[in-house]
Amino acid sequence: MARTISNEEVGAVYATFAAHGDLTASDLGKAVVLSDNNTVNTTSTETELLGKLVALDTENDVATVQVAGFMEFDYTGSPGVNARVVTSGTAGKVTTPGVEYGQGVIVSVDTTATTLVVLLR
To answer: DSSP character for 29?
Structure first.
C-alpha cells in the first residue's frame, strides 16, 4: 500500500489571545508574536515566533493561534530543512535567524511557492 506524506494538522494545539487592533482577515495564516500581555500581532522584526493566526474575531478582538504542531508559513531568505525559524522583516512571514536562536524545526521547503512547513513543540 502506497502512503502519501502529509503533516497537516498533526499535533496541532490552539490557544486564544487578545487580537491587536491592527490584525485583519488578511492576516489569517500568517506568523504572529506576542505584542503585549496575552495579545498577538504580526511584526516586521526578527523575533521569537508564537505561532500561526488561524481565526480572528474582530468584533470581540479575539485571535486563535496554532501554537504547536506542523504548520505552513510563507518565508523570506533561504531556509533549509532542520533549521529553526523566527519571524522575518516582512510582516507575517518567517525566516531562519541570523544568530543561534529560533523555534521549531523546518521539515520541508517549497522554493517555488516560497513556503515551508515547521514543527513547533
So the answer is: T
Confidence category of residue 4, pLDDT binned at 50, 70, 90: confident
Beta bridge partners of 72: 117
Q: Which residues pair with 104 in a beta bridge?
A: none
pTM score above 0.85: yes
Fold classified for 1-121: Virus Head Decoration Protein; Chain: A, (2.40.300)
Dihedral angle at the C-alpha atoms of 32, 101, 117, 41, nearest 10 degrees? 0
Q: Is 7 helix (H, G, I), strand (E, B) or coil?
A: coil
Please give the distance of CA 19 from its chain centroid, rounded to a whole number.
Answer: 15
In a 3-state reduction of DSSP, which class is residue 97?
coil
CA distances from 96 to 48, 70, 103, 106 (A): 11, 17, 9, 9
Cβ-count burial 56-92 (b if 16+ within 10 Å, e if not): beeeeeebbbbbebbbbbbbebebeeebbbbbbebbb
pLDDT digits (tens, 9 = 90+) for 40-62: 999 988 899 999 999 999 999 99
